[in-house]
Amino acid sequence: KRKVANKGQKVELRKLFKNFDASAATSAEDVKSLQSKLDKLAAKGLVHKNYAANKKAKLAKAVSKAKTAA
Q1: By CB distance 3.0 to 4.6 Å, which of 9, 13, 57, 66 could disulfide with 22?
Q2: Mean pLDDT over residues 60-66, rounded?
Q3: What pLDDT shows up at residue 28?
C-alpha cells in the first residue's frame, strides 16, 4: 500500500517540475510551494535530503536568472 502512495508522491513532484516555468514564476508563491513539497518529501524519506537541497538551489538559481533577464 505504501509503495503505491509513495510512487504517487514522486510522480506528482516530477509533474510539478515539468510544468514549472522559471520565466513565468515571478511570484514567490510558485517557488515556495515547490520547495515546500521537496522539504516534505525529504522529511518523509521519499527523496534524499541532498537531492531536495540540490533541486531547491537549482530552482532558486533559475528564478534569479529569469528575473535578471527580464
Answers
A1: 66
A2: 84
A3: 72
